[in-house]
Design a protein that fits this description.
By secondary structure, this protein is mainly alpha-helical. The protein has eight helices and no strands. The termini are far apart.
Length: 147
């Protein structure tokens, strides 16, 4: 198949993913990857493999390979972060998303971070976040509208 057909498969996968159909997207990304492996194809394939098949290690590996080849592409950070989220590694996902934003602007990464939410700093910085004083003082100030 020609390169344009490979691109068509990839773009079909993107459309399917945007419509929330990651099963169909997985099929399209697999075809595009087989026809012409590129970092972008492997990055999206990594996310879909992790999400639909639960193959988190394979998904992370594909995304990291893409990052090694194109370290400044924010799309790879987006997909690697999504793999971490699907795998239940929220802290690592946040770290990857922030690293991606440091490389350049990406609205999808910003939307993912907003969806996850951020925690406010502890009320008393010298105490740990888990300290009972910090916990209850934070809750109380929040209810009073001061936080």
């Amino acid at each position: 198949m020609s390169e344009t057909e490979t691109d068509k498969e990839f773009h079909r996968g993107l459309r399917a993913l945007q419509q929330g159909n990651s099963v169909a997207a997985l099929t399209f990304f697999e075809r595009a990857f087989v026809l012409g492996a590129s970092p972008v194809y492997s990055s999206y394939l990594g996310f879909c493999v992790a999400k639909e098949r639960g193959q988190f290690k394979k998904g992370m590996l594909l995304c990291r390979e893409a990052l090694e080849k194109e370290p400044d592409s924010t799309v790879h950070y987006l997909n690697l972060g999504r793999v971490h989220l699907v795998a239940g590694n929220k802290q690592e996902a946040i770290r990857v998303f922030r690293e991606g934003l440091a490389r350049g602007p990406n609205q999808e990464i910003a939307a993912q971070l907003n969806a996850i939410g951020t925690r406010k700093p502890p009320v008393i910085a010298s105490l740990s976040r888990k300290n009972l004083i910090n916990k209850y003082l934070g809750k109380m100030l929040s209810r009073l509208g001061f936080r």
